[in-house]
User: Fold these one by one.
Assistant:
Number 1:
Amino acid sequence: MARRYDPHRRTRIIDAALSVMAADGIAGLSHRTVAAEADVPLGSTTYHFGSLDELLVAALRRCNENFVRALRESEALAAGGEAEGAVRAAGPAGAAGSAGLADELTRLLGQWFAGERGAIELEYELYLAALRRPALRPVAAEWTEEAVELLSRRTDPGTARALVALMDGVCLQVLLAGGAFDAAYTREMLARIVAGGG
């Protein structure tokens, strides 16, 4: 009997790859382990993803979307754009706008860290895998570029890039040290960067 067409199979395969890597790391990823996790024939995984690098690219792109979506959907970031530009134009009195941007980014990071720790670790494992897998490098850069673009609506591009670099650094330190997210410290450092920009 012929198998029914499954328009969501590619998505299920990506989800399965993320589940396999969450359990066993990138080293546990193979077409066979993903097919078993997705409950699809082995040929389905190789049909949709000719190599493991292709599958890793799709998985990293899915992970990238999580935090960028939070930035994109933040009403505070979207609503503050025009006001922030006016405050910046007014000069040094722009501290309130700087604080607002730092507050919102800290809130978003805190919300992210309040989620599943294993999912966050997997996102960074995939992100850092680009060091050894050139196919992943453009995808790893995608989230940075989109985050910079979104934050540039509230500040200048150089400051936006510095904010993204700081958030990355804070996340890596929390993950590698196994500590808790320090919202007060993060907010202070973000506010310093915003205040020094533009």
Note: The radius of gyration is 20 Å.
Number 2:
Amino acid sequence: MKKSSTYHYVLAAFGAAIISVLAQVTIPLPLIPITGQTLAVGLVVTILGTKRGTLSVLIYILLGAAGLPVFSGMSGGFGILVGPTGGYIIGFLAAAIIMGFYLDKFGITIYQAIVANVIGMVVTLAFGTTWLKIVGDLTWTAAFMGGAAPFIIVGIVKAVLAGWFGVIVRRRLERAHLISFSGVKTPAERN
């Protein structure tokens, strides 16, 4: 049975809500805080796939840009996107696309999902560090030390958690017939 487009939009909105909630989990650091946003982006893309996962991230960014307090620290507004952390938020969209394509190409296994999430972390840090350098008028070294170095270990841990947990949730949702992917039969549909 083909799911309606409304169903896909509802899933994407649900993904955006997950990102919004986990964005509020924050560990403050001097320049850029550690947040649950990257974990949430990885989870959502791993669970929902390329199209719905990327749409979820886009909805999240648009809601925040419109002023809804969905970004970390219950913040929102276009000013956040052009501020020091804006590069990370825009990087989420690029990360979602790249992670999704990677998973489409190599399959949804825990190992591949972890690799995809590590790639997503690198993409997000690259966008964030580059934007931090521009906005903060920093040297590359200063931007890297403030905008990437403190997040590498935590990012790897979040990538492992998002890949592992995301695949488990995705498989359970497929078995329960709550989610399916066009052209790919769920395990229950194969029987």
Note: The beta strands are 26-27, 34-35.
Number 3:
Amino acid sequence: MSKIIIVFASMSGNTEELAEAIAAGIQEAGIEPVLKNVMDTNASELEKYEGVLLGAYTWGDGDLPDEYEDFYDEMDDINLEGRKFGVFGSADSSYTYFGKAVDTLEEKLAEIGGEKVFDGFKVELNPSKDEKQLCHELGLKFAAALA
């Protein structure tokens, strides 16, 4: 079984930046994560990994991005028992539900047996230097949780 996969959807590049910063922290811990756009994978691939990180921006008033919809539905058919997970994403506080896509994915991962390593990490629009550093630290923490 491979170690860690990071799956993300990013419209403007913000969530991808978060994914890359988390990946850098994991790499610093000595693990080479697999980084994939959600459009280039399917949910069943998650079962091959000990650690699963999902990143998504929140669309509109709390929706998952369109590109995550099939993947999300496919998650009903997998079991992540014994696997660790974390969720992150960019959001816009001008909407009613800030970062609801992060919450939605977190709930689904727990529902299919995953064990949460850190609370959903949300940033307002584009990540600051400090927020990228926090992502780097989340990567280190996530890697340590698998050790």
Note: The beta strands are 2-9, 34-37, 49-56, 84-91, 115-116, 121-124.
Number 4:
Amino acid sequence: MSGRLSLALAAGATVATLLFCTAPAAAQPVTPPAHYANVQLADPAKEASAKALMETLRCLVCQGQSIADSDADMAADMRALVRERIARGETPASVRDWLVSRYGDYVTYDPPLSGLTWPLWLAPIALLAIGVWIVRSSFRRRTR
């Protein structure tokens, strides 16, 4: 009886492993990207304006790339939103403000100074001060 039980457990574990491994394939999006995700605007001036704005916005998935450079689906959707709004005649500043209100300050590469972002602005200064202090203390030890 224990042989059948262990065989059933092994079969169950195999089925569970196969389901676990195939789950990411089922999670892939089946909808095509938005129209303006990879298509430029007909007006070169508006496209240049949209492209300049897209280069200043951070991909929320990649986080190290702008939405202009990212291949992520989220970045494609954001590119489409930017191009659609620019095509309707909105200014890049208003599109940027809309994206910040929707996704937060993190969507920009230069978040404004606020109570939440002051560590981002002060951290480089603090790290530089710590580095200067370490260098000065190491030189003082050598001169003694």
Note: The mean pLDDT is 81.
